[in-house]
Amino acid sequence: MIESCPPTFDEASLFSDSAMGDTAESKRLELKRRFRQLLQIMQCVGCDRCKLWGTLQTLGVGTALRIILDEDEPSQATNLSRQEAVAL
To answer: Using CA atoms, how far apart are residues 43 and 66, in angstroms rounded to an integer?
Structure first.
């Protein structure tokens, strides 16, 4: 049964340089751009409750990715805003 399950997500391959010429830094910038765009789209949702939950979930995923991918100062603690801490 275990052999039939797909392999788990490998975050190391997410930002490795691909054969298409994309660098890890360009992939990170594209991911940031898409998250910002998603947050802008969430502001257009008509239902306030849906807008709140969608924004909260997007902020939580974005914060988790920022913590995981923050390689500038791995020994330094990551400072989170109040909204980011709640979203996690």
So the answer is: 21
Residue where the block lists tokens 């969608």: 54
Between CA 71 and CA 10 the distance in angstroms is 17
Spatial CB neighbours of 65, under 8 Å, sequence gap ≥ 6: 31, 35
Of residues 32 and 14, the one with the higher pLDDT is 32
30, 21 contact by CB (below 8 A): no
- Rounded Cα–Cα distance for residues 9 and 3 (Å): 15
Does the predicted model carry a pTM greater than 0.70? no
Rounded-to-integer distance, Cα 80 and Cα 73, Å: 15
